[in-house]
Amino acid sequence: MSNDQQTPVPPTTDESLADAVAHAHKKLEQPAIWPGNVPSQTQALEVLCGKRMLAISLPNARRLQEKLTLPEREALMDEGLADSLREAVAVRWRLAAAQDLLLTAGGRVDRTALEALLAEVDRSLETLRAATPATPDLGLAIDRTWETLTQEAVDFSTNVKAAAAQTAAPAHPHPAPKKPAATGKVTFQPQEPDPRNAPKKSNKVLFVGLGLAVALVAAYHGTQGPNTVTPPSAYTQPGAPPDTVVIPNASNGSLLVRSLRTGPATPQQEAWFKQQEASGMELNSQGPGTWLLVPTAKAPATAGNTQP
């Protein structure tokens, strides 16, 4: 009898099913890891069209929505008018939301979700370049969105690297306050937390997590070494200096140039700018690390000034 009392009773089918359901609910209740917690493309379109309200605060995404142009709003509300523009605006919104949510990442990164987000950016850029707009206004909006999304993808990479670099700095007994280096459109600066009040392992964990994100973003942008970044061919042109993104505008022949390094233009960039000016381009600064090269209007040659 004693042996019979010690024999465990196997769980019934109902008990096993209940355990499985409880385990599934527990997994569903766990928050997604960044950037897997970024709203989906469908959710982004619903937010942009006013069909969904979010319970979380996404200031950068909200500002992007407030600044949308009339053609962008028309494309969002009229499905089929300019689907490439419609989808690209949603991708831009998701990229802004990802930067907002990076503040709450807690050092954890979902590599699969990050790869998927970057792949969506690539697909959207390719779709924009292949678009055939129905009106000139939509054509201008598509060109503008292509350039803006390219810049924002580069800024996203720069911002993640900057966050990892700040976290990787060695801790000192009395660290001196230091402002982060300018990285273009820095959109997620932390609110100066006191490292003395943080858990001892928090910096290490955050660095490891963001290190994975930096590795993926660096691979996406073709990083070669710690100081040289070679952009993909879609964002540059033959002869362009290293650490430089060149965004051509086929409609007017202009070149939008973005530096992937902080500070003034490098000697290689300066030399390349002079070559462009010598070939008939006019250089205009658009802010730190950004320039616009536009073709100069030249008077037509006459018989008096032509070479024999």
Architecture overview:
It is a single chain. With 308 residues, this protein is of the alpha+beta class. The chain folds into two domains: 41-171 and 196-220, no CATH class; 233-295, no CATH class. Helices cover 48% and strands 7% of the residues. The chain has a four-stranded antiparallel sheet with strand order 1-2-4-3, with helices on both faces. The longest helix is centred in the middle third of the chain and has 33 residues, at 136-168. The N and C termini lie far apart (119 Å). Residues 164-201 are annotated as: Disordered.
What keyword list fits this structure?
alpha+beta, 10 helices, 4-stranded antiparallel sheet, globular, disordered C terminus
What is the fold's blueprint, element by element?
Blueprint lengths: L1 H5 L6 H17 L11 H8 L10 H8 L3 H8 L5 H19 L9 H19 L6 H33 L33 H19 L23 E6 L4 E6 L7 H12 L2 E5 L4 E6 L13
Antiparallel strand pairs: 1-2, 2-4, 3-4
